Amino acid sequence: MEFLYKYSWIVPLCPFLTSASTGLALFLFPKSTRSLRRICSTLSIISLAVAMFVSLILFWQQVTSHSTYEYFWSRIPNDDIYLKMGFSVDPLTLIVSILVTTVGISVMIYSDSYMRHDQGYVRFPVYLSFFTASMLGLVFSPNLIQIYVFWELVGMCSYLLIGFRFVRPSAANACQKAFVTNRIGDFGFLLGILGTYWITGSFEIRESCDRLIELIDNNSISYFLANVCALSSFPGPVAKSAQSPLHVWLPDAMEGPTPISALIHAATMVAAGIFFVARMLKFFETLPLSMNVISYVGAITALLGATIALAQADLKKGLAYSTMSQLGYMMLALGIGAYRSALFHLVTHAYSKALLFPGSGSVIHSMEKVVGYSPQKSQNMFFMGGLRKYMPITGTTFLLGTLSLCGIPPSACFRSKDEIISESWIHSPLLGWIASFTAGLTAFYMSRIYILTFEGSLRASSGGTQLLPLPSQFNKFIWGNTEIDVVEEERSDCYPLVRDEEYISTIESRGELPVRREEIITGPKIDHSSKSLYPTESDTLMLLPLILLSIPTLFIGLVGIRKETGLDSLSEWLIFPTSISEDEENYGNFIQFLLDSISSVSVSLVGIFIACIVYGPISFHRLDSYSINSLSKKIRDSFSLTIQDWSHNRGYIDYLYEISFVRGTLLLSKLTSIFEVWIIDGIVNGTGISSLTGGETARLGEGGRISSYLFGLMIGITPLLTVFAFPAPQEFIFQDITYTSMK
Description:
Blueprint: H1 2-5, H2 10-28, H3 30-35, H4 37-65, E1 69-77, E2 82-89, H5 91-114, H6 123-139, H7 144-162, H8 169-200, H9 205-217, H10 223-232, H11 235-240, H12 249-252, H13 258-266, H14 269-279, H15 281-285, H16 288-308, H17 315-335, H18 339-371, H19 375-378, H20 392-406, H21 412-427, H22 429-454, H23 473-479, H24 501-509, H25 517-522, H26 540-555, H27 569-573, H28 582-585, H29 590-596, H30 598-615, H31 630-648, H32 653-701, H33 706-725
Antiparallel strand pairs: 1-2
Helix pairs in contact: 2-4, 2-6, 4-5, 4-6, 5-6, 5-13, 5-18, 5-26, 6-7, 7-8, 8-9, 8-10, 13-18, 14-17, 14-18, 16-17, 16-22, 17-18, 17-21, 17-22, 18-20, 18-21, 18-26, 20-22, 20-26, 21-22, 22-30, 23-31
């Protein structure tokens, strides 16, 4: 067993070597490497498959032996710092490792078909392999320094992948926004690491946790100082896992290719913050104030993400805010000490979202043939509808992922979300209300996404033609803010007005439509009788990952069902110093498990029912054609418009940052510039100008003639002589002296 653990470094090394070798070959021999792009993609898949195989073997060994293993070799040994580098193998490490490798393989197989017509086809698997290698390196890190190094590598890879199509200004801005936002969090993260070393004297995670507990038990450290050091590191997970208020980068990250969205939202970047808090939970648990901050940040994030997702028109951004909300659930669970429930939801949500994002990519890939390559149309649910009859496999798998996030049994997220809601009610009624209400909102907006995309009838023809009028403000809430005019005959609106030559070349290289250069600018000329006007099902390589990911989406939640012994499979795998209460020991069988979940399932069913009423065949928006009380209609329209504006404007948080930070920084820079120009430079320039003026004046007086000098001398002496030769008259002051006779 120990022999196997010694080779755990193979897991992150395999994708790293593949990424490095392919990237080096692409740099040295670009043309030859591009001609072997399918081989490069296959090598990336094989290397990650090897990493997955090793992870599974280690996991099986760990399950049977219930042991942990750490291997170190010393670096920087001196009197002040003794840093140990190595790797750690425990249940948390192996569960997340299996999650990263399985989702990564599915995404790479999917990308082989999705990205095959892209000019950056070879560059894409290089970034993907490096991304997964960085995440695996973070997972196996035993100390804070190694975690920080791989933490930054994960951020760098996300920057490269979000800005993969950097010729689009929106993609370039999105990757910069993600980079800057994460740098803000990482600055606090670094301060927290240094503060932890300052109070505990160690970078090792286990040793730091044990020393902090010892210091607090002995009252050897200030409680306030310990909380400051703990919360200083929390901005890092807040930014990485898109927690409020540093979540603003996540929806813009949808500018990257869809496979990247699947990998970021399921198993890599956003999971890094949850993993770190779970790894350091023993450290945070000794500080109740820090735990309360973590729990309420998670609760606010869950509710905020759910409310913003209510009226999103963009398919991928709706799923992005769903990810933000579910990550809030995980952070909430960690904040109330529900370690097992948080990790359980991390796994179930990862597989569900890894199914939904490739499904959305399959839809977008198919809609591009109908409405063009503009993301404002191909990703807009307003133009979709009725896709289930054109794409039955994609529609079925997407429905499974939707039911999972809604929390409908026996899907994956059903059990994990129910546990978090139950733990929230036990810890605090306020947190319980937020968690329950968010569950209902989740069921509503996920059902909305599915119905608008796959049910009903197709709402757009090949020109981007709008087929369904929107008569009231309430309908804007139903569809989201489309901001697209009705077009009936004008075919040029099918493609975006793109003039960028590199982007045009990219469009020409994609083989789905035989378009010409002028058609990209003016719009294609398509025969309306052709079948290409309608979406079609994706190819086998794109459907295979969807089918495979449907299996864990349906059944991975079964590992959380408790057995007669009082423990479930996940609890048996996890080794964490928490005791099981008597209520948990007598939790009962599967029937009792279902009975205890009635409340959370009922909330989800209410959300689904409302979505079906609003968006289903008997849609509530059709009541506009009937006589409705004018006051109630105004109230309804006002309420729906408020929700729509809140969702469209992303909760107004971006505007708040624009006013407070962006404009504030610009104003401060302008004031600084004025101060520098008129005060700092004014003093320096004034001194120089006065010296120049004095010198020029003296130079004009230097004529070189003695008579001029004598004349000037006389002019200067004459006033002096006048003053000293004729002194001013003296003033005499007389004092009256009174003599008083003394008797």
